[in-house]
């Protein structure tokens, strides 16, 4: 495959490589994607579960969904795509991974220099942002027990420390992601490339003269914009691209 050979050569020579990942990277671990076949948003409307309004209306229902997802993810293992990227970050100081995934599988694979744009399903936040609580705290329990969980500081509601539709991303994460778009090669992997601002990053990188490439099972809105679009499975392609 000509495209793969060109990309592999550019990756070998690149000082700064940035990889944006989405749910497709965790598909081989058995974690459902959002929009693909059997995707989560094919079964339920995002607005009923992943918005502040949904949480306000029915925190228990929202937490039941997150508790179910946490249980499913807990049983999943990082796959070859997570391991390949983690190995790149350990071997090459210029590699940064930006993820939209909240599942923690990049972390479990040992990824260094990881920017989590949409938060973590393994962290909780005080819903009312009480003064006593840290901005978020880790909770790995599966199942969580009595739902909805409470803020240990004020006793009020706790929420998942993830970004919901209509909410802003953490400014420091956005800055780190934007900074990482100054790179030699930018890869967008396993994301439908429709949720902004993550979907804009490949365009920033292009403006910064990076070689841009996509690895996805199917064409996305990013496919026409990148220099190299490769159709295939992340878990099969990434390992072969950059030997470490
Ligand atoms: P999506 O479910 O929208 O897209 C997953 C993409 O992965 C699709 O384009 C698939 O074709 C592709 N794919 C599936 N399996 C793959 C594989 N084995 N190898 C390569 N590609 C594969 O997921 P995201 O783009 O991550 O946001 O979704 C972005 C955001 O929308 C999520 O972070 C979430 C969601 O609503 C929030 O929750 C804020």
Count of separate DSSP helical elements: 10
Q: What small molecules are bound in this structure?
A: 2'-O-acetyl adenosine-5-diphosphoribose
Mean pLDDT over the residues = 95
How far apart lie the N and C ends? 21 Å
- Derived from helix and strand composition plus strand pairing, the structural class reads alpha/beta
Which strands sit side by side, in order, in the main sheet? 3-2-1-7-8-9
Strand content: 15-25%
How much helix is in the residues?
Answer: 25-40%
| Shape assignment | elongated
Q: Encode the helix/strand succession as letters.
A: HEHHHHHEHEEEEHEHEEH
What integer value in Å does the Rg equal? 18 Å
Give a count of the beta strands, DSSP E runs of length 2 or more.
9
Q: What are the low-pLDDT stretches, counting only 5+ consecutive residues below 50?
A: none
Major sheet attributes? 6 strands, parallel
Please, could you describe this protein's structure?
The chain is of the alpha/beta class and 244 residues long. Helices cover 34% and strands 18% of the residues. It is built from ten helices and nine strands. Strands 3-2-1-7-8-9 form a six-stranded parallel β-sheet, sandwiched between helices. Helix 6 runs parallel beside helix 10. The radius of gyration is 18 Å and the shape is elongated. The chain starts with a helix and ends with a helix. 39% of the residues are buried. The model has no long low-confidence stretch (mean pLDDT 95). Residues 22-24, 27-28, 33-36, 39, 46, 50, 100, 118, 163, 190-192, 195, 215-218, 220, 233-235 line the site of 2'-O-acetyl adenosine-5-diphosphoribose.
């Amino acid at each position: 495959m000509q495209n793969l050979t060109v990309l592999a050569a550019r990756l070998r020579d690149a000082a700064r490589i940035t990889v944006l990942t989405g749910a497709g990277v965790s598909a081989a671990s058995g974690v459902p994607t959002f929009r693909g076949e059997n995707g989560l948003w094919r079964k339920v409307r995002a607005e009923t579960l992943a918005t502040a309004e949904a949480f306000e209306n029915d925190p228990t229902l929202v937490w039941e969904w997150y508790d179910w997802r946490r249980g499913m993810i807990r049983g999943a293992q990082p796959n070859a795509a997570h391991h390949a990227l983690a190995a790149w970050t350990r071997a090459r100081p210029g590699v940064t991974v930006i993820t939209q995934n909240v599942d923690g599988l990049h972390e479990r694979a040992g990824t260094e220099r990881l920017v989590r744009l949409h938060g973590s399903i393994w962290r909780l936040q005080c819903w009312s942002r009480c003064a006593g609580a840290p901005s978020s705290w880790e909770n790995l329990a599966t199942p969580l027990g009595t739902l909805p969980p409470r803020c240990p500081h004020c006793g009020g509601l706790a929420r998942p420390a993830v970004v919901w539709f209509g909410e802003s991303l953490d400014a420091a994460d956005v800055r780190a992601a934007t900074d990482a778009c100054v790179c030699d090669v930018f890869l967008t992997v396993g994301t439908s490339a429709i949720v902004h601002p993550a979907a804009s990053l490949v365009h920033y990188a292009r403006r910064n003269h990076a070689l841009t490439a996509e690895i996805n099972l199917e064409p996305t809105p990013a496919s026409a914009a990148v220099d190299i679009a490769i159709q295939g499975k992340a878990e099969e392609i990434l390992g072969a691209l950059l030997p470490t």
